[in-house]
Amino acid sequence: MSSTSIELWPNSSIDELQTAIRAVYKQVLGNPHVMDSERLVSLESLLCDRSISVREFVRGVGKSEFYRTRYFEKSAPYRFVELNFMHFLGRAPSDQKEISEHIVRCIEEGYDAEIDSYIDSDEYQNAFGENIVPYNRATTLIGKKQVSYNRLFSVDRGSAQVSSAVKASQLVYAVATNSTNKIQKPASGANPGGYAAPAKQFKIVVQGAAFDSPRHRSSNTYIVPGDRMTPQIQRINRTGAKIVSITEIV
With DSSP H G I counted as helix, E B as strand and the rest as coil, what are the percentages for the chain, rounded to 5? Predict the structure, then answer.
């Protein structure tokens, strides 16, 4: 995704408007090739007429069938959320709490509410306002720890990668355990998504589930190989349980 700030002004030219439109498609849609037939012509016209702001154009692109099909319907839940953070806020999720909140919102309130939660956030307004195209904020995340940069670069691998090419989460283990993650190119022929370490095993301790009674919140432990972390955590989240800890078994 782009790390350059592009802003529209009242006197911006047609060429500058088209530059902003292309930048939104690249950032929000995850660097795909957008065919003419896939462009949101009506939405573009509203922006060119100044009937809507860049912010509302971004919202419309996020709620488009193009975005929904590629990132909501065809990606793992964790991947969908981490891409939303990158596409709309220009950063990676900070912790497990952030990811869980967005997964729960998407399940309970629906797809549109999940997209709105980024666009309507104070963070979006402070970072981009009404007329700045969202961008990779790696160089502007003041006060963040190094792990925040590593996570962002793990999700955003530059202009050569199309977001929809990777379906599984890149951060599920690092965020769930609040640990660092290495940035490395996937080995040839390897699964490019998710946390893959089949030689290692992890203990996941969870508490509570949707089927537990209010007076009895059960605690369960799962032993999971590294290459099965993503689907196991997805199953746990579907039960409504809370992940207490994830530790590597030595």
Answer: 45, 10, 45
Of 176, 211, 231, which marks where a domain is finished? 176
Output the domain CATH number for residue 40. 1.10.3130.20
Q: Residues 29, 66: contact at Cβ < 8 Å? A: yes
- Please give the residue range of the domain that contains residue 205: 201-249
Residue 204 bridge partners (DSSP): 222, 246
**pTM of the predicted model as reported, rounded to 2 decimal places:** 0.65
Alpha helices in the chain (DSSP H): 14-28, 41-48, 54-62, 65-67, 77-84, 96-109, 111-119, 122-128, 146-155, 172-176, 229-239
- The residue behind tokens 């996937």 is 186
Instruction: Report d(CA 20, CA 153) in Å as an integer.
Output: 23
Q: Would you give per-residue pLDDT tens digits along the chain (250 residues)?
A: 666 789 999 999 999 999 999 999 999 998 878 888 899 999 999 999 999 999 999 999 999 999 999 889 888 787 889 899 999 999 988 877 888 889 889 888 999 999 999 999 999 999 999 999 999 887 565 555 544 545 555 555 555 454 454 544 545 545 555 545 554 444 344 443 333 333 456 678 888 765 444 555 578 888 887 667 667 777 887 887 877 776 656 5
